[in-house]
């Protein structure tokens, strides 16, 4: 049963990219659990404040659909933690898109964290948080030893 649930959870996460690729507002909005008493929240990588509720999500999604053409949003490195009717997912989206007004195709790796709840047989988002992913190589310890800052 656990494998079946994890596949269903992964399909719910992949639905986010599918909604943008298909330019399907209904699909995007139907991913969320609006009946949750604590509400829903989304922290987009480019925003300083979380979005909350269907109307804020709709306005945000519409701005993206009006501005960008999404060609791909592959989900990679998923880690799923299943806790009864709750699931926590950590993954990366590898977005491929371009601006509608013209321009080159761009790629953007994005780190994502989801909190989902199973309701009515479906896994729905309660919270989703994105952050920009980039490669960082820490300096080696010997290079730091003896460094004096004046």
Automatic annotation (TrEMBL):
InterPro entries: NTF2-like_dom_sf, SnoaL-like. It comes from the Bacteria. It comes from Cystobacter fuscus (strain ATCC 25194 / DSM 2262 / NBRC 100088 / M29). Residues 10-132 form the SnoaL-like domain. This is SnoaL-like domain-containing protein.
């Amino acid at each position: 049963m656990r494998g079946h649930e994890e596949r269903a959870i992964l399909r719910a996460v992949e639905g986010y990219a599918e909604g943008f690729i298909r330019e399907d507002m209904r699909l995007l909005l139907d991913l969320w659990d609006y009946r949750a008493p604590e509400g829903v929240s989304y922290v987009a990588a480019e925003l300083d404040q979380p979005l909350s509720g269907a109307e804020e999500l709709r306005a945000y999604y519409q701005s993206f659909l009006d501005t960008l053409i999404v060609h791909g949003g592959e989900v990679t490195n998923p880690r799923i933690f299943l806790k009864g009717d709750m699931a926590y997912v950590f993954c990366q989206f590898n977005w491929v898109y371009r601006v509608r007004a013209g321009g080159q195709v761009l790629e953007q790796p994005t780190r994502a964290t989801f909190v989902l709840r199973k309701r009515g047989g479906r896994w729905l988002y309660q919270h989703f948080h994105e952050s920009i992913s980039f490669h960082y190589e820490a300096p080696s310890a010997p290079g730091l030893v003896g460094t004096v800052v004046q």
